[in-house]
Design brief:
Layout (H helix, E strand, L loop, with lengths): L7 E3 L15 E3 L4 H12 L3 H18 L2 H13 L4
């Protein structure tokens, strides 16, 4: 996401909640080698424009959720709250 590349991720990784299969990356079932192979194969079959569109959407999601400009204020709010 951050590197403007296609994400292939297992469904149990924390970021998997932010990946919409075939929209901004590809999700496979954890510990399912066949499903991982299917996900990789789907990436390999994308044409250049489809690949770029998925990468663009992943980068936009990264910028909106994880970029330092977004993430730091969230951490600061938690740090300054009575959470701890």
């Amino acid at each position: 996401m951050m590197m403007h590349k296609t994400v292939v991720i297992s469904n149990v990784c924390g970021v998997a909640d932010d990946i919409i299969d075939d929209w901004n990356g590809f999700v496979f079932k954890a510990e399912d080698v066949d499903d991982l192979c299917r996900a990789i194969n789907r990436v390999s079959l994308l044409d250049k424009k489809e690949y770029e569109n998925i990468c663009d959407r992943a980068r936009i999601d990264y910028e909106n959720k994880y970029a330092m400009e977004v993430f730091t204020p969230r951490v600061e709010r938690i740090k300054n709250s009575n959470f701890f």
